[in-house]
Amino acid sequence: MIQKTPPMGWNSWNTFGEKISETTVKEAANALVSTGLKDAGYTYLVIDDTWALRERDKNGKLVPDPAKFPNGIRAVSDYVHGKGMKLGIYSCVGTMTCAQYPGSYEYEFEDAGTFAEWGVDFLKYDYCFKPAFEKGELLYRRMGLALANCGRDILFSACSWGNDDTKSWIKTTGAHMWRSTHDVMDSWESVRMRAKEQFDLQKYNGRGCFNDMDMLVVGMNGKGNVGLTPGTFVQYRTHFALWALLGSPLMIGCDIRSADSGIIDLLKNPGVIAINQDEAYCQPFLIGGFRNFAVGVDEDRFCFARFLGNGDIAIGMFNLSDEPGNLFFHLSELGLSRICGRKLVMTEVFSGEVSESRAGQYTALIDKHDCRLFRCRLERD
Ligand code: GLA
After folding, report:
1. Ligand 1 centre and the CA of 70: distance in Å?
2. Which residues contact ligand 1 via a Cβ below 6 A?
3. For ligand 1, atom 3, which residue shows the shortest CA distance?
4. Is residue 2 part of a domain?
5. How far apart are CA 196 and CA 190, in angstroms?
6. DSSP track, 264-292
7. One domain, residues 139 and 237
8. Rounded Cα–Cα distance for residues 125 and 47 (Å)
């Protein structure tokens, strides 16, 4: 299968951790439908770690924990498919998963066959308990091959956190997305830190295999399995805009059964989703920001741009610092020279405000932790 745009969905880990069950997955499926998130594009529902028993059966097959999944995984996939969505599951390259359930090491073909038999559409494949003498790239290739031969389209989501120079080999494995960060926790500091690690990785991002900046913590409000410090709405909006503009898969992590309408509307924002899901998928590039040419990019105040398939340009101006500041970029950095006879008609995606910019510099005063996300159209001037 070919993955043209970053996958979108919901993953159980951030909120539920080990407390995952058939009931919670079904409730999450219902909530995706009733909130309109499914119709907005969030169609993969992923069961993360801890779904299995600690031991395989006598034939070496993985066994869903009957206390959590009394009717097995097939019943869940039937339910999710019945709602027009797809089911994801989790395993690991090592002998055990990160939470110490059985991993797929030396069972790759067997497990890929099992997942196909259960009607699974997505596999998140983690990196814990890898035997030290084995090369990670070889183990991801093994599972990539097993999935490609299992008789079902299964999206391959690699999760080696960028370790062992993942970026240099991941596209040999058949993976459709790869974790380019360590885990994001629900705190502004974690979001800020993870985002800044992505600057140099954009050249590896793109169609077919997307840089995965980890599940969204938008709307977690300090609760659940990775809840730390509740974020403000502005912080969650900046986090969402960044992940979307940088072409990360958008995997919701909050408890969508109880999320408030402001958060649901944020996650459904059609302008943001259209930028994330743009099929041309040109790589994002850094422009302007708060650049001090003596020291290079200010990593807390920066702007990214991305060319879109219809000729528009998406531009994000991000102030991750703790002070308000004037951020800027030059139109020349986008390819618009002083004599090109074109102006930018800029629609700010969250506020709907429209402004125009001509040759020269565009500057905006942006509050701490806030952002502006624009969709810009070129017009003759
Ligand atoms: C790792 C992954 C997380 C989650 C846990 C489950 O930490 O990076 O996203 O899947 O394992 O144990």
Report:
1. 24
2. 13, 48-49, 97-99, 126, 159, 183
3. 183
4. no
5. 10
6. HHHHH-HHHHHHHT-TT-PPPEEE-BS-B
7. yes
8. 12
Q: Which of 276, 293, 317 lies at the terminal end of a domain, its last residue?
A: 276
Q: How far is the CA of 126 from the centre of ligand 1 (A)?
A: 7
Of ligand 1's listed atoms, the one at least distance from the Cα of 182 is: 8
**CA within 13 Å, CB half, 283:** 15
- Pick the residue whose CA is nearest to atom 11 on ligand 1: 98
Active site residues: 126, 183
Q: Which CATH number does the domain housing residue 310 bear?
A: 2.60.40.1180
Contacts with 252 (C-beta within 8 Å, 6 or more apart), sequence order: 9, 10, 11, 37, 42, 215, 216, 218, 219, 267
Cα(252) to centroid(ligand 1), Å: 15
Domain residue limits at 79? 8-276
Same domain, 56 and 142: yes
Separation of CA 61 and ligand 1 centre (Å): 22
Closest CA to 361 of 325, 316, 315, 330: 330
Q: Which of 11, 16, 98, 157 to mutate to test the pocket of ligand 1 (most atoms within 8 A of CB)?
A: 98
Could you list the pLDDT tens digit for every one of the 381 residues in the chain?
899 999 999 999 999 999 999 999 999 999 999 999 999 999 999 999 999 999 999 999 999 999 999 999 999 999 999 999 999 999 999 999 999 999 999 999 999 999 999 999 999 999 999 999 999 999 999 999 999 999 999 999 999 999 999 999 999 999 999 999 999 999 999 999 999 999 899 999 999 999 999 999 999 999 999 989 999 999 999 999 999 999 999 999 999 999 999 999 999 999 999 999 999 999 999 998 665 555 556 789 999 999 999 999 999 999 999 999 889 899 999 999 989 999 999 999 999 999 999 878 899 999 999 999 999 999 999
Residue nearest to atom 5 of ligand 1 (CA): 98
Q: What values do phi and psi take at 223, rounded to 5?
A: -105, 170
